[in-house]
């Protein structure tokens, strides 16, 4: 059954009355991780562990993440990507709604596609209707003042990193932050939120992947 946005609104309002949260984020950097090491409880990297649905968590997990947003705990990474644009409670309401209701989101770790056929087999196995960044942004911004802003996509990506870390994945952050030095050492550019969508990042799925992991956004056919 679709989750009511009114219920989210009441929850956000209640949260603002309660006051500051004692929660602290696991994801507290101003850059995105270069890769993740698997949780210590996961001793083998199998095909099943390379593709994991990460927004299939207990509801309190996302309530905690929204609480962190409402108390500005992700400001370091958010303002690195959006130094001017701020977010408001309606952004948080919609973020919580879409995390729970609109998407199936998969964490994909270092899978190699030799052909478009390989990708299609993965999509068939996951029963995934893939979404591009443009489609994800449209769904996130539906009803908002701006249909072109990517701040909600940024907020979604940051939330997914927090969710991964809550699941026990260990982040490894880039040691080289200079764009110039990354070119000298033939390292890929530091990632921005748009880079994480596996569909947009690798349109032909034939080139060597410059990154270790991606997110696959699928349409939730049960959403309203």
How do the strands and helices of this protein lay out in sequence?
Blueprint: H1 5-18, E1 35-37, H2 47-50, E2 51-53, H3 59-70, H4 75-81, H5 89-101, E3 103-109, H6 116-126, H7 133-141, H8 151-166, E4 170-172, H9 179-184, H10 198-201, E5 213-219
Helix pairs in contact: 1-5, 3-5, 3-8
How would you characterize the overall build of this protein?
The protein starts with a helix and ends in a 5-residue tail after the last strand. It is built from 10 helices and 5 strands, in the order αβαβαααβαααβααβ. Strands 2-3-5 form a 3-stranded antiparallel beta sheet. A two-stranded antiparallel ribbon has the order 1-4. With 224 residues, it is mainly α. The chain has helices at 5-18, 47-50, 59-70, 75-81, 89-101, 116-126, 133-141, 151-166, 179-184, 198-201, and strands at residues 35-37, 51-53, 103-109, 170-172, 213-219.
Observed structural traits:
single chain, 224 residues, mainly alpha, three-stranded antiparallel β-sheet, 10 helices, 10% strand
Summarize it.
With 224 residues, this protein is mainly α. Helix content is 43%, strand content 10%.
């Amino acid at each position: 059954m679709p989750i009511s946005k009114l219920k989210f609104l009441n929850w956000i309002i209640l949260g603002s009355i309660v006051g500051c949260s004692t929660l602290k984020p696991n994801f507290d950097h101003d850059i995105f991780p270069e890769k993740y090491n698997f949780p210590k409880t996961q001793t083998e990297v199998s095909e099943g562990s390379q593709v994991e649905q990460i927004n299939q968590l207990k509801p309190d997990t996302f309530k905690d993440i929204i609480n962190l947003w409402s108390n500005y705990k992700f400001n370091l990474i958010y303002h690195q990507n959006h130094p001017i644009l701020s977010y408001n409670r309606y952004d948080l309401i919609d973020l919580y709604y879409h995390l729970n209701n609109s998407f199936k989101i998969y964490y994909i770790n270092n899978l190699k596609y030799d052909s478009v056929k390989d990708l299609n087999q993965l999509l068939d196995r996951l029963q995934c209707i893939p979404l591009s960044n443009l489609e994800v942004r449209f769904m996130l911004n539906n009803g908002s003042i701006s249909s072109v802003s990517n701040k909600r996509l940024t907020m979604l990506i940051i939330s997914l990193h927090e969710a991964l870390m809550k699941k026990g994945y260990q982040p490894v952050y880039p040691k080289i932050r200079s764009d110039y030095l990354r070119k000298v050492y033939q390292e890929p550019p530091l990632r921005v939120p748009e880079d994480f969508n596996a569909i947009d990042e690798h349109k032909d799925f034939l080139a060597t992947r410059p990154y270790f992991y991606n997110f696959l956004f699928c349409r939730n056919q049960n959403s309203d």
